[in-house]
Amino acid sequence: MVDKIKLLVAVLLIVAGVAGFYYYADQALLYRVLGLLGVIAVAVVVALTTQPGAETVSFGRSAVMEIRKSVWPSRRETTQTTLLVLVMVILVGLMLWLFDMVLLWAVKLLTGQGG
Q: Do the Cβ atoms of 25 and 35 come closer than 8 Å?
């Protein structure tokens, strides 16, 4: 129940921050943006003190650990893969162009527009 209240407070802080941003429209934009960012930061801190917030932080840390376990391709492998993809795109493009030209020739032949 306490977590729900904290999350409600966080949402209300954000709503109040956005309302204040527009209420003080006569003030400089820089001050309004800084105020809004400050209110959002406080709302995030309040939200992170809840159980769902702690689980979100834990999930983020686990995701970072999994990314560190990944084996990234070397520069050479990346270059070779990129070149292979580029060659395949060009080949498929040429095949589709040729297929389109054959269909265009056939339609012109069938419709009598080919001359």
A: no
Separation of alpha carbons 29 and 18, rounded Å? 13
* Residue reference for tokens 């389109």: 100
Q: What is the DSSP string of 92-109?
A: HHHHHHHHHHHHHHHHHH
Distance CA 36, CA 42 (A): 10
pTM metric for this prediction: 0.57
Distance of alpha carbon 37 from alpha carbon 87, whole angstroms: 47
pLDDT, tens digit, 9 for 90 and up, residues 74-95: 999 999 999 999 999 999 999 9
